[in-house]
Amino acid sequence: MHLCFAVHPARPTSHSAAEYFVSLCNAMEIQASIYTGQETENLQAADVLAVLGGDGSLFRHVPVARQYDLPLLGINMGRVGFLSETTEEAFPALLPRLLAGAYHRIAYPLLAATLPQREPVLCMNDVVLYREDRASALRMHVTAGDTFSGPLCGDGVIVATSAGSTGYSLSAGGPLLAETLRAMLLTPLCPHSLAARPLVLGMDTEIALTARESALVAADGQGLGELREGETLYVRGTDESVHFLRFSEPNLFERVRAKLQ
Fold first, then answer.
1. Comparing C-alpha atoms, which of 172, 36, 162, 188 is closest to residue 106?
2. What are the tens digits of pLDDT across the range 152-163?
């Protein structure tokens, strides 16, 4: 087995932890290397991409995990680390189980977000349409397949996967979805209507968000660009997925109690 530890090049603490883990792996005759964003040869040789950081770090490494067909293992060095499986302190004790293959692979489905004249962008957590100026409301028209079509006014809207149901969508009043459920959420942000409530939709639904004012679009916390007045953002589920390693049976509610109390 070859473990590749992904670190943020501007964060010395994660790099120091990765160097320690590499030496620990070498002592156990496990091949190990470090990825800072440049060492593609390490990704080509790897069997697992272990990401040191928080959920944001995991999201940033989804594209390379897909490109090199690597499962992700989150080692939390952030604040919450909801998607991380272990911590910097606990990781060494998990190494024998990792080497023995005593883990589960959980597939998280991905969304595709498409702006006008742009190629689709894949993300695993959520797509958010919002106004930079929060002092004024965003008016839009929302179509969700054959389920819903109509106007929406508020601070914006979130389209989230089951993984993203525990993030921004949850804070906005959306429900929790089981980790392995192939579904997505349409969650209004501070809507100006009591009738506007979150919708749970199938992954085969295409959501069209047409802005009545200029708005911004973000996917997995990264800005995608601007949606101008009258333009439409399309979000749909895909058959693509990214795999995470888990050392216990998935239990969403235990994870919520442990991480979000």
1. 162
2. 999 999 999 999
Strands 126-130 and 156-161: antiparallel
Q: Which two tokens stand for residue 205?
A: 């639904």
Of 47, 55, 69, 133, which one is the catalytic site residue?
55
146 a catalytic residue: no
Distance CA 104, CA 247 (A): 6
Give the model confidence (pLDDT) of 101-116 as tens digits. 999 899 999 999 999 9
Which residue ranges of the chain lie beneath pLDDT 70? 80, 249-253, 255, 257-261
Half-sphere exposure of 202 (CA within 13 A, CB side): 5
Q: Which two tokens stand for residue 101?
A: 């293959």
Tokens of 72: 């992700």
Residue 170, Cβ neighbours under 10 Å: how many?
A: 20
Q: What is the DSSP letter of 119?
A: -
- In the three-class reduction of DSSP (H, G, I as helix; E, B as strand; rest coil), residue 249 is classed as coil
pTM for the structure as a whole? 0.88
Q: Positive or negative, the Cα torsion across 166, 169, 172, 174?
A: negative
Q: Within the chain, where are the H helices?
A: 12-27, 40-45, 55-60, 62-67, 91-100, 168-171, 252-259
